[in-house]
Amino acid sequence: MITFFLVGLTVHIVFFLSIFDIYFTSPLVHGMPPHATLLPPPASRLILIVADGLRADSLFMPLHNGSSRTPYLRSIIEEKGTWGVSHTRVPTESRPGHVALIAGFYEDVSAVAKGWKENPVEFDSVFNQSRRTWCWGSPDILPMFAKGASGDHVYTHTYPAEEEDFASTDASRLDTWVFTQVKSFFHSAKSNSSLKAYLLEDKNVFFLHLLGIDTNGHAHRPMSQQYLNNIGLVDSGVAEVVSIIEEFFNYDGRTAYVFTSDHGMTNWGSHGAGHPSETLTPLVVWGAGVQTAQRATDPQPYIDEYLQDWKLEEIRRVDVNQADIATLMASLIGIPIPVNSVGVLPLPYLNNTDHFKAQSMYTNALQVLEQFKIKMSQRKDTTLSFFFTPYHQLDCLDLNHLLKLVRLSFVSHQVSLCQSLISHALEGLVYYHTYDRFFLGCSVVLGFVGWTSYVVLLILKTHASLIRNPSILRQIPNHTLARVFMCLAVAIVAFLLVQKSPMTYYIYCLLPVPVWYSVLKESGTLTDLIHSAPSLPLWKCLSYFLLVALGVELLVVSFFHRAMLTLGLAVLSLWPFVCGIFGRSKLRSLSWFFSCLCLAVFPLMPVMGRESNIHLVLCGGVLTFFTSACFLFSLWQRSVLHPCDRQQFMLHVVVCAYVPFLTHSSLQQKQGLPLLNQIISWTTLASSLLVPLLSILLSLTATYLLLSTGSEALFPPALSWLMYVWINIEQEAMLAQGVPGRQELSTIDFSANIDISKIRQLKLDDIRRSYFFVFFIITAFFGTGNIASINSFDPTSVYCFLTVFNPFIMGGLMMWKVIIPFIIVMCTFETIQVVTQLSSRSLFLIVLVISDLMALHFFFLVQDYGSWLDIGTSISHYVIVMSMTIFLMLLSVVTHTFTSQRLALWRRPKIHFP
């Protein structure tokens, strides 16, 4: 068992990491020379203002009376500048958003998890190419651009991290701090000759990072008055800063202004996924070299209805991709475009001669082509010549000829030629970046299918009652098979060595070799299965496998549509009536029926965090209190509990249900997080992990209540009651399938060693038990929210523990909240394994096959999808399933010990559910 566990864990970790090597690799290449337009730029300096977390509709939407909450920026849109919507990419988080804005490329998604203050990879940026850059704002964003810049020409001014407090009286003070610092900076520069000399030079950038809107959105939601008032404060602050800057530079007309946002925000105050409220951000550009407002004479080519809602249908709108903004900023002040940029210069924003626009586009084309040539060269060097397939749209021999044609073309044609060249070069970059994706995907799928086949054969060999026929010899002797696979491994290694492949390629390509060797070694089991076929209930087997296949498909669809879990629970509720259990135990069958229907309500409810309702948390506390009372009453006559223990736990549940209410009230009154509430919360969390209370459910529910913000507080009691009924009804199912020796739960000693002589072989009904387990695991994950989407995580759920922004502690607490229902289901399954007289390994192997089939399904979905958003969604689902499988493998070893030791810890002979 230990050997199988270690091998299986290694294989699944490889499968888990493979998705990152195949899809989440850095797109950056190095070694390109910078390119800049040689013509004089229209602006000497650039002011970049990023309102973190600002939605496009929140800025552009007028008030009910027709006025605007942002009168200054509205006047810019209508008279002095050009506006549009900046389309961001998933994940809509601060770090990748700012990298796209300032560096012009879409960062490797996994870099989000590597920290906000460190750079996982080196990259070029507008700040790095500028003469000098001054930044004011958050300590989570500014340092990474200062660290990535060559030399010491990026100056950062940040407030303490403790100021990013979601419980603060008014988070707009963060933006006020930035505006005050900028005004003080220019005021002091008037009397500081050296600083003034620096400021009067060209190619300078000033970056204002405004975090208040994002913080208020998380704390109070984007429709709150705090969020909307903060937008008005930013508008007035921008107007004041612009006035001071223009005065400082004597109104020389050489300053360009860019106002935008890194990402938007959902109505429930989160971001990270691909909802339009997160991906549509405002862009307003004005000043030197920028086109003034243009009237739209014809209907504008946008299929959305935003123009009518925003009352801007008469003013030309110019949408861009977020990475295009870096190219625009570089062009305005005449600095080289960041060498890693994939942005395309949005010409409608420029107010300059056709010659300048053509030269700027030519520079943009050169910069992108440099990346394409480096990427192509790298790929060619690591691929055998007869295997290499170049990108058909751009032949390396014709690149110089193409550029020469562009230079000699008329200005009117030069722009269109450059745009076409950039488009093909960007497609070529994607082509070479994903060149090995199909090859690696095939290797992983081959290993996946081989591993699943091996587990199925292992189940048939060791846990099924097949007719063994020792006289049948294997067709291929073991030593011959070993030699064949050894030669295959050597050939693979030689091929990868010639291609100079990375080390991870060896793992993915060599892993199928021992896996399929093990499969072919067990080919005799297939012979035994064929030999046993006449004695098997074939129709029953086929019907079981068909139902499991449909069930797996339902689970896969439920990752995209949570309502499918409701359908599944409704079908499961009928199980006792279909299988004849109702005639044996009407009470347990009806309890199962109503428990499934109660739990089926949760996937139909809004995702947790979208609507905070502290009264539902109190209801969850009452339901938990009632469940606890029933539990304690069931133990009253057995004298298992000391009266002091009963009183202690009941009081603890009441306190944990009331603490979120007190915290919520305190935050609403702008009084911050009470210290006593924080102490109670952290103490409860620690005690639930280190000193289990009465049972697995009751030791974790108190923590779950503290992490709840609404209806999800009702979920653990409903789930646990269904789990309790499941344990009991499985005993009736054992009698229905003819397994004798049923034992009452109250007489089972779970802390004792299992009698090996009572362990039975697998039956078809055990496939159903394993599927139920996987179904309930998925329900535990998705019952209260779509955790595959980043924007389902609501920071308000951790406010009982902390309110100062700390992404890793907050993320850890929210993940623990997700895992608590998972543990309840896992421990229930361990109990069923004991009750049904099965070894942990036998049921676990079936679970492993089901979860691997789901993961393989998602892997194929990733291959089929074309859009980045769809790929990202399927990848996140694959990662969740693989994480679940690895977690199951770990817990399968420790769960039985955990349930036993917690009893010994409290010196109680039995464990009871719920």
TrEMBL record:
It is an enzyme of class 2 (transferase). Pathway: Glycolipid biosynthesis; glycosylphosphatidylinositol-anchor biosynthesis. It comes from the Eukaryota. GO terms for cellular component: endoplasmic reticulum membrane. The chain crosses the membrane at residues 438-460, 480-497, 503-520, 541-560, 566-583, 590-608, 614-637, 649-667, 679-707, 770-788, 808-831, 843-863, 875-898. InterPro entries: Alkaline_phosphatase_core_sf, GPI_EtnP_transferase_1, GPI_EtnP_transferase_1_C, Phosphodiest/P_Trfase, PIGN_N. The keyword Flavoprotein does not apply. Keywords: Endoplasmic reticulum, Glycoprotein, GPI-anchor biosynthesis, Membrane, Transferase, Transmembrane, Transmembrane helix. It is a multi-pass membrane protein. Gene3D superfamilies: Alkaline Phosphatase, subunit A (3.40.720.10). GO terms for molecular function: mannose-ethanolamine phosphotransferase activity. Pfam families: Phosphodiest, PigN. It is found in: Endoplasmic reticulum membrane. Residues 427-867 form the GPI ethanolamine phosphate transferase 1 C-terminal domain. Its EC number is 2.-.-.-. GO terms for biological process: GPI anchor biosynthetic process. Ethanolamine phosphate transferase involved in glycosylphosphatidylinositol-anchor biosynthesis. Transfers ethanolamine phosphate to the first alpha-1,4-linked mannose of the glycosylphosphatidylinositol precursor of GPI-anchor. Belongs to the PIGG/PIGN/PIGO family. PIGN subfamily. This is GPI ethanolamine phosphate transferase 1. It comes from Takifugu rubripes. The lineage of its organism: Eukaryota, Metazoa, Chordata, Craniata, Vertebrata.
